[in-house]
Amino acid sequence: MKAILIAGAVSLLVTLLGTRVAISALVKQGYGQLIRDDGPTSHHTKRGTPTMGGLVIILAVLVGYAASMLVTQTEPSASALLLLFLFCGLGLIGFLDDFIKIFKQRSLGLRSKAKLVGQTVIGLIFAILAINLEDAEGSTVITHAVSFTRDIPGWTLPSVALVIWVLLLIAGTSNGVNLTDGLDGLATGTCAMIFGAYVIINIWQSNQNCDTNPLVSKCYEVRDPLDLAVVASALMGACIGFLWWNAAPAKIFMGDTGSLSLGGAIAGLALMTRTELLLVVLGGLLVAITASVILQVGFFKATKGKRLFRMAPLQHHFELLGWAEVTIVVRFWLISALCVATGLGIFYAEWVASL
Question: Which of 23, 158, 299, 303 sits 20 to 30 Å CA-CA off 166?
Fold first, then answer.
């Protein structure tokens, strides 16, 4: 438990203090955000706001996790290291996207195909290692089963299908956070809530784990749950500290560097904690925003030019309806909080029902 508190506190302090330094450095370099011309006109005032703040989030998570390991004299687990690899790997893809936007002075960075290839390569390495790395008891980081609150009996995938499933989950979640990151503080606050939920889930799974408490009925066969809680705590702390500067009016944006890395970390936690389908509930806001884009594109093509929403993603639809940005963010946070609370309730209810 000490490691969890240290990781969260240190990462929060790093983003709280380090983001201020990053803002000054990025402003001096002229690394400001470019705004799409087809977006809401109110966003044009944000042109030039420093971006790539996700670099501070990544640094904070790594420092927070390292500090917790040093203070508690604990060795990092394979699960935590793999999760951090996925987190940093997707952050690198996002950084390249952000840097190209700034260097070439355009609102689009990496081409969609190049970004997808990068996500696929990182996800493929993660999937192969997660399937094959075994501990002394022969447990792997992820299993071949599809999970809800734990592995679903009979829903076992062959290796090729499992890798495809992992890639889809990583791509879907990272792009979901990326689409959500359209208003000041919206994605940061939403991710903080989801990571907070995974801190609770991992602590519970650690207390009821089959390795440490084999006599507990319906124990959880999750590998390294306590160490995953440490990483989740570092992620939550980093998001909260960054939110101080990212809340409206934002002094800095996380950019794709932050959104892709945070989305990858959420997907990794879902896979490692055996809560893949539960993520649909926990990340309900991410699902809704992603679905709004899919529906908009599908409706536009099916009706030859008509739009289902005034603009997608969903948050921009409400902007064009006249809602204030802060109003949208706070209300969407409330929706996200309800989704997280519902997901945790389902997770606990399954445990109670299994007794």
Answer: 299
Number of domains in the chain: 1
- Alpha carbon distances (Å) from 121 to 68, 150, 223, 291: 30, 27, 24, 25
Instruction: Check residue 138 and report its DSSP letter.
Output: -
On whether residue 169 sits in a domain, the answer given is: yes
Q: 160: which 2 tokens?
A: 């090729």
CB 182 within 8 A of CB 40: no
Q: What digits encode the pLDDT tens for the residues 299-326?
A: 888 888 888 889 989 999 999 999 999 9
- What percentage of the chain's residues is helix, strand, coil (to nearest 5)? 70, 5, 25
Domain assignment of residue 38, yes or no: yes
Distances in Å between the Cα of 67 and the Cα atoms of 63, 125, 144, 290 are 6, 27, 33, 35
Q: d(Cα 46, Cα 43) in Å, to the nearest integer?
A: 5
In a domain, 302, yes or no: no
Query: Diameter of the chain by CA atoms?
Result: 62
Reported in sequence order, the residue ranges of 10-59 that DSSP labels E, i.e. its strands, are none
Q: Residues 339-351: pLDDT tens digits?
A: 999 999 999 999 8
Report which DSSP code applies to 32.
Answer: B
CB contact at 8 A, 12 and 237: yes
Rg (CA), the chain: 20
Length of the chain: 355
User: Among all chains, which residue has been given the structure tokens 């290291």?
Assistant: 81
**CA distances for 33 relative to 45, 91, 105, 147, 182, angstroms:** 11, 17, 9, 39, 12
**What is the span of the domain harbouring residue 88?**
2-280
Question: Does the structure show a pLDDT above 80 at 31?
Answer: no
> Would you call 299 exposed, middle or buried from its count of C-beta atoms within 10 A (0-12, 13-18, 19+)?
middle
Whether 322 is in a domain gets the answer no
Q: What is the pLDDT of residues 200-257, one digit of tens each?
A: 999 999 998 887 777 677 888 899 999 999 999 999 999 999 999 999 899 999 999 9
